[in-house]
């Protein structure tokens, strides 16, 4: 699928991102930075960090 480019999201007013992997990497990194402000023993931080790190690893694996 190297030559296939998505032209529409199918949602009115929502443009297709030209660099989705880079955008996701930036967003997941920002989420992890914000989580640093939450106490380490908070359940929300633990689970959100776990999920975000898993998603970030997937994005990095696909990007490279």
From TrEMBL:
GO cellular component, one term: mitochondrial inner membrane
Pfam family, one: ETC_C1_NDUFA5
Primary subcellular site in the record, as a coarse category: mitochondrion
GO biological process annotation, one example: respiratory electron transport chain
Ranges in coiled-coil conformation: none
The keyword Electron transport belongs to this UniProt entry's keyword annotation: yes
Keyword terms, alphabetized: Electron transport, Membrane, Mitochondrion, Mitochondrion inner membrane, Respiratory chain, Transport
Record InterPro entries: NDUFA5
Annotated localization: Mitochondrion inner membrane
Membrane topology: Peripheral membrane protein
Function: Accessory subunit of the mitochondrial membrane respiratory chain NADH dehydrogenase (Complex I), that is believed not to be involved in catalysis. Complex I functions in the transfer of electrons from NADH to the respiratory chain. The immediate electron acceptor for the enzyme is believed to be ubiquinone.
PANTHER family: NADH DEHYDROGENASE [UBIQUINONE] 1 ALPHA SUBCOMPLEX SUBUNIT 5, NADH-UBIQUINONE OXIDOREDUCTASE 13 KD-B SUBUNIT
Family: Belongs to the complex I NDUFA5 subunit family.
Quaternary organization: Complex I is composed of 45 different subunits.
Protein's UniProt name: NADH dehydrogenase [ubiquinone] 1 alpha subcomplex subunit 5
Taxonomy of the source species: Eukaryota, Metazoa, Chordata, Craniata, Vertebrata
């Amino acid at each position: 699928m190297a030559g296939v480019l998505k032209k529409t999201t199918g949602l009115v007013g929502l443009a297709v991102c030209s660099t989705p992997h880079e955008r996701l990497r930036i967003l997941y990194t920002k989420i992890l930075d914000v989580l640093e402000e939450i106490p380490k023993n908070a359940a929300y931080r633990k689970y959100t960090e776990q999920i975000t790190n898993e998603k970030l690893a997937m994005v990095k694996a696909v990007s490279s």
